[in-house]
């Protein structure tokens, strides 16, 4: 019998594995631990040598550890990547960050940098056709000195940038203790993510080694990775996300049976849940009862308008009002018609956020500017807050927005043209996403409404993206000009002239109100690997000029801004408050409203927040 003679490459790789030089290197992703696998099979010795070389075994099996991984071991390429990304994490994003949040961002980005550093070293070794080596003498000392200098310097500059952002937004809150503790938070976060990553890789290696007993090494590698990737996806999407949604749904559904403090069932037939209403008070839900039971009184409207005002009409249907979205829309419109909503001068259709929330400032401003000659209708489509609704079921927002407007339009369009109210559409955040779905484009909005106000639109909104992506050359993404502003316009400050200021804005007006510092408007998965126009162009008035795009880092910074988007003063982030006043004034063009009244109304709306 002839035995195959190993070639020079096999001899070289076998010698490398036998020397056992080098420390653990995480940059060899992928191959299973098969040193003791396949014994007694033909060619098992050559296979073991090849597998050990492929997985970077020289660093994973130091004599001191006897082949077992050191718990706290890190690689030099990975550490350089972690250091660079940790320093970059102190660069500014859209909103000011406290110490705790900064520490979390730093830890996450450092973990990403560590993984990229390890992967870069692995790719370089693949092209160089060699295995990992121990770092040269003094390499760790150079790294430690550089780390101390770069991290301290980046931390100091980062705090200066945070001071500048707070100044732009008028934020005075600053917790020195949490800022000092942020490096500790970063280290803990980095360690946790590194442990999770190694746990996943360890699971892969075990599975691949097990599969290698029955199938070839390459097949075992591919199948092992696919199986572990599927398992991680299943755990994250099914167990973690599914569990989060289940807990949130249970918690918010319980709250939906309660009534906010200070809210009473209406005694007027002009509100859902009141006398003669076809929608029971108990079915409105937490947010529905808050919407129906609040708002400016007739006396407050009269005082502002300086003339007799009407009591506004508000109609609403909660999740418990009907079994599906179409039936809820029909109930809300029936109650709107019963209360006389189609006989008012102005009719507003609002698509709510996930939990059925309607921003009080949005509706209150509308009612003040119309002198109470207004009717508003909305419905609930979920128990969950907007960000969870977006993650698990965007279709509910789409369906609710379409069903409600279609139900209103069906009744409104059959009225005599000279006896119809002006029909307006509005939505904030996820509500603008749902509100858009009732329309096919610019002309549909123009032909079927008297005006539209979409506020803080998420970046994934279909029409918002269409209008913004097809903007006029030279117009910035934070304030684009679409079709010369004939119907659709954008502004970040409706108190100023809305571009293009030198062009007539006739007919129905569609206005998008969005702040340059609103992370909900600018967040997108595309931030991971692509620079958006809004970063490369001159920044808005409340965004630091030093902000620039970095792969991975910018995405996590803007992602971390999302939960705190309303924790800033009005006029910044996702907090629009008094911006509704001037937004509605631009869209509706009410007669008889003076600049002094607008100033007064801004104060009223801000005080209500």
UniProtKB/TrEMBL annotation:
Domain of life, source organism: Bacteria
Sequence intervals crossing the membrane: 71-95, 101-128, 140-162, 174-196, 222-248
Name of this protein: Membrane protein
Biased composition range(s): Polar residues: 15-24
Membrane keyword on record: yes
A Pfam family reported for this protein in Swiss-Prot or TrEMBL: Abhydrolase_9
Organism lineage string: Bacteria, Bacillati, Actinomycetota, Actinomycetes, Mycobacteriales
Alpha/beta-hydrolase N-terminal domain span: 90-296
Keywords: Membrane, Transmembrane, Transmembrane helix
Organism, as annotated: Rhodococcus aetherivorans
Region (Disordered): 1-65
